[in-house]
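Components:
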Amino acid sequence: MKVDQKLFQTLKQYHNKSLTIEEVTAFESRLAEDQVFAEEVKTHETMYQTIQQYGDQQLDSELMKMGQQLLAQGADQQKGHQKSGKIRSFQPWYLAAVAAAVTLLLIVLIPEMIRQPATPGDLYKTHFEPFEPRIVRGFATPQIVWTEAVEAYKQENYSHAIEKFQTLIDDSTFIRKSEVWLFVGISYLAQDKPEEAMDALVQVSDTSGHIDMANWYIAMTHLRLDQPGQARILLEEIATDQRHERRAKARKILNELEE
Amino acid sequence: MKAIVSDQIILEGILTGGAKQEKAIKRLYEQYFHLIYNGRKKYHQLSDDDLLTAYNAAIISLRRHVLNQTFRGDSSLWTYLNKIFYNKCIDIIRKVSSNREDAYENLPDQEDEQGTVLSQMTINEEFDQLVSQLAQLGEPCKQIIMDSEYLGYNSEEIAQRVGFSNARSVNSKKYSCLQRLRKLLESVKTGKQS
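Structure:
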């Protein structure tokens, strides 16, 4: 049997969903009714999938090389930072000269520095505020723990709140964990622990009703971590989402980031 | 630090195929590589190699989801990739540990390959053998098939890449290469490997 290039093309379009509804219907009907055609489709589909799997393997090995290089670069940079952080002994005359130069530079640069646009850290300080929890109904057994956690959170006793929220996360009967992860993330941010906050916030499920607010706080976390590029991506998404309650704030921060 | 490339540009690159797709994948990979560093803090039980495996698998899945329109742009690429990466990490943790990660609620669904009438047609148990047959196809057949059917280069571009005089020669060669591949695969199926 020969390779049917047209069939091969149809399969590719079928997988990429670029066939019309009519074409899909016709293809699937023939597949169900025509045994010989179905056998040919099976052979071509196996060829197609083999090519895709082999391609994935090749791509994986290329990415692995790239990843190892990036990790090695990261390690080198870290070593560089550590090296530059070592204390050296300097001559007093040298220190005095450096101090004088720095003083002079400060005198010249201070007015200019005052006019500098807001840094991501400044924007974070201006715009971060913990989100007020709303009344949640429907919790059975863990209701008491939830109430205690929220009370601690409201009183800004974030360590205690995280402890209580963690109890709910560990409770297999408690199903609304996305909401809890959101408050754990905010609690960590309020304690100025952005990395822990990020870890918690990314656990909020995309399908939960809390993903919008989680994305807002992930953007805040990126600002705090001095990752303005990552923050911008999320803020642009929020700013253009007509349903997002923080869209005006997102636009404001974007404007300040671009200044 | 490189400028952030927008989702739109990355998506267009992937969908265009060819050199643009390769460039977009490379950019995507570098742009969100910090997920590996986040992963180091989050998944202490995973080595750097495990994290790279998870990240690579997430990038490859994302590429496929863009091409087959499973990813429809309802979230940002970062959010989507982050979620897949998280799933892949959990998969690896489950493999390396007998303890289930019960602490994680609402584990996002495993790769959401939608079932189609074709999904049951392939002979999965023979895939390893089939893939190794393809690897032995030799050049330029292997490159022509992969450039055309995986990376999405057009025939003119492939002609330049493999040193053929024109697109027609590529098309003709591609047909004979696919024919060879079919024979190889049929030999695996019938157990009569050539």
